[in-house]
Description:
By secondary structure, the chain is of the alpha+beta class. It has helices at residues 37-47, 106-113, 130-146, 170-180, 192-205, 233-241, 263-266, 337-360; strands spanning 4-5, 10-15, 21-27, 64-67, 69-70, 73-74, 79-84, 150-158, 161-162, 212-219, 247-252, 270-273, 276-279, 287-288, 291-292, 297-303, 313-317, 322-326. A five-stranded antiparallel sheet has the order 1-2-3-7-4, with helices on one face. The protein is built from eight helices and 18 strands. The longest helix has 24 residues, at 337-360. It starts with a strand and ends in a 9-residue tail after the last helix.
Amino acid sequence: MKNTIGNNIQVTLFGESHGPYIGAVIDGLAPGIKVDEAFIAHQLDLRRPSGKISTARVESDPFQIVSGAFNGYTTGTALCILIPNASQHSKDYSKMATIARPGHADYTAQCKYHGFQDYRGGGHFSGRITAALVAAAGVVIPELARKGIVIGSHVQSCANVKDSAFATDINELRSQIAKVNDLPFAVLQDGVQEQMRSAIEAAAAESDSVGGVLETAVVGLPAGLGEPWFDSMESLLSHALFSIPGVKGVQFGAGFDLVNGRGSQFNDAMRMDGDQVVTLTNNNGGVNGGITNGMPVVFRCAVKPTPSIYRKQQTIDFANGTETDLEIVGRHDPAIIHRARVVVDSMTALVVYDVLAGRYGTDFFGSTK
């Protein structure tokens, strides 16, 4: 299994949903990055389930940094973060060891690992592992902000309820990002959160689930990041974003919205703002030819409805090759999109850090004594 991503910094995820620990190792970080444990805890809070629209499995996530940091700063060696699992109900899965849950990785895991996989709660495929990813990115997000680079996501749509799009004005966009990054349910418009919550609760009452779309913006990136072909900014981000459980689509800028339009509508007119090149629109999402153009990098992720639903479903028992019906038990989210947004931010931050370190060197970050 390929558990590591990155070129100039490498992030490795480990652990299973019902194992004793999950965690991450980050190798290649610059020395001298301030490690803000309060910020890491805040990010984990944003990922944590709460209320009727989330699973009843609530972990406190008392993370521990066991290497790579000393006196509050990174040392430049591999940084390892451990997060204990403490709220497992493994018995909920004991009767389903060979029953494939539709929409989950149970069958494909069986095909790849021949029955040796940990099936409990999805094992290593579980969204629980994203807590370690969020903790890892919690080290680099404040360092990116110190360089003037901020990242934020909001729920642009959920269960056919829509939020406003991010602003095109950069100063307003920065304010919007600051706002949503402190919200447990990230939306821009007043009243939209309540409508989305009601729609999620309605789906849960019918033993079903819903999905939606996240819009993400990265502000402050310099022009010139990325490569023209296989390591384009879009391909690096997409590679990482599609690793997040539940993400089934990624589009940059206007994306599919303008496939029936014309070039005159899609092209971004260019002007000078002092000595800075700007575009009057951002239909290309801040990227041309795979390389950042200095405008905000804007993309959207489609997050599928949570596959764990309490309705009876047709499936198979892959141990004996028979068809069967499945009615799941346990604790499951009727929607994950509001929790996934901090995971998308985290994955984006790790990619951005990696690309910047590749262009400017790892000592672009951190500090020297």
